[in-house]
Design brief:
Length: about 450
């Protein structure tokens, strides 16, 4: 097939590494959008950070929904490539893009209309709430760019060409870095300036993807962006992507509850600590997500081609690599939590509270990487439901655990321990299931 890389032959370690590095870098770039905003807005004070942090949960939820078509593209297109079915690969690509556009318009409209009641859930001060509402409404109008770019990224990953999304997303990040200080301080727009800068960067990424696919690339021999939906392809995409999107969306709902609890226990500092700490924790999450996505794409092609021995070797290699990095992140957060947090929010009360969060959360970093890496195994073979069930169950256990620990007098730190304990549980359970599944004949 034109414009793809065959992952069913050749050296496994090199293929995994070459596939994972651009995906991981792309994930870091996407994370850097939020961290760049956070770093610049942090200079405005902890209240401004709390405002965009409250929206950050909704941005995360939006990204979670977009996984329906990102994962749907990676698995459906990847398995079609492995099965040597070019027609199916093109049809799945077109269907994923069409579905992404429909969902993004519906979701963005809901967030724009109901921005005020959603933000008031956090019970922040009135001026912080007003800033957050304006920020959310600006961001919501750019969601089609995010959803469509996620679908494009999934298609390229499935084709083994993960470098293309990396370079395109990197261009968007550079633009965001340049525009952030200009809009926030140069034009005096404050938190709204961060939203406008991100909107322009995301729109630029989308337009570059369109240019790449229409003018420079003949990926899969060319395919239409939009098509009339057919039941055969639509059902398969939802079967593959919906469990993943549901898992991450429900996770965001859990975090909305924990954010409110953190706000009740620690005011805007408590909310800021949880949301900013979560962004910093994305260092671990995005690294493991890069390996997991590469493993999923690699397994999708090899599993469909019947190359089971390559699936096993890729699984062991990825597990070893993520284990090393997970240990590094644990040491970094546990011993240098204050210093890491202060990079983004230099206010003393903020980085001291953030340091406590990172130290507690640090104990779970290795297990988080295990969880996400094991998800890649299941996604690659088309079994997206088991990891979703496990993760959803453990994530929702955070709510009663957090309430219990708070009532025991642990305060806001009880929430951090609830997060840590459930993350450890998810990693251990999914690792055990993967070992059982991999050992099956």
């Amino acid at each position: 097939m034109q414009g793809i890389k065959n992952l069913t032959q050749g050296p496994i370690n090199r293929q995994l590494f070459n596939l994972a590095m651009p995906i991981m870098a792309t994930s870091f770039i996407q994370m850097a959008y939020s961290l760049t905003d956070m770093a610049w807005v942090g200079r405005l004070g902890s209240e401004a950070v709390a405002a965009i942090g409250s929206v950050g949960i909704l941005t995360w939820m939006s990204g979670s929904i977009s996984l329906l078509n990102k994962v749907g593209s990676e698995v459906s297109v990847g398995q079609s490539i492995g099965a040597q079915s070019q027609e199916d690969a093109r049809s799945f690509a077109s269907h994923n893009i069409t579905i992404a556009l429909i969902i993004s318009i519906c979701w963005g409209t809901l967030l724009f209309i109901f921005a005020e009641p959603i933000i008031r859930i956090y019970e922040l001060e009135d001026h912080i709430t007003a800033n957050a509402i304006q920020y959310l409404r600006i961001i919501s109008t750019g969601l089609p760019f995010i959803f469509l770019s996620a679908a494009f990224t999934g298609i390229y990953n499935a084709a083994g060409r993960s470098k293309v999304p990396f370079f395109i997303s990197g261009t968007g990040l550079i633009l965001n870095i340049i525009l952030d200080p200009l809009f926030i301080f140069g034009f005096g727009l404050g938190t709204n300036g961060a939203a406008y800068a991100t909107w322009i960067a995301e729109a630029s990424v989308f337009l570059i993807f369109v240019y790449q696919l229409r003018c420079r690339d003949a990926l899969l021999g060319g395919f239409p962006f939009f098509t009339r939906l057919k039941k055969k392809y639509t059902r398969r995409i939802f079967k593959l992507g919906l469990p993943v999107a549901t898992l991450n969306t429900l996770f965001a709902f859990v975090n909305m509850f924990l954010c409110r609890t953190a706000s009740e226990q620690g005011g805007h500092i408590g909310l800021m600590t949880f949301t900013t700490g979560g962004q910093i924790e994305a260092i671990t999450w995005n690294t493991s997500q890069g390996f997991s996505t590469a493993l999923s794409a690699f397994i999708a092609q090899n599993y469909a081609a019947g190359r089971v021995e390559r699936v096993l070797r890729a699984w062991y290699t990825t597990l070893w690599m993520t284990g090393i990095f997970g240990t590094f992140c644990t040491l970094l957060f546990v011993f240098f939590g204050n210093e890491v947090f202060a990079i983004f929010v230099p206010e003393q009360a903020a980085y001291e509270a953030g340091g406590v969060f990172l130290r507690i959360d640090g104990y779970s970093q290795l297990f988080m990487m295990l969880e996400i890496t094991m998800q890649g195994v299941f996604y690659g073979i088309g079994r997206t439901i088991p990891p979703a069930i496990i993760s959803i169950s453990c994530n929702y256990m955070r709510i009663p655990l957090a309430i219990l620990f708070v009532r025991m007098g642990m305060g806001v730190e009880g929430i951090w321990w609830a997060v840590c304990i459930t993350t450890v549980a998810k990693g251990l359970i999914l690792l055990s299931l993967s070992l059982i599944h991999i050992s099956e004949p």
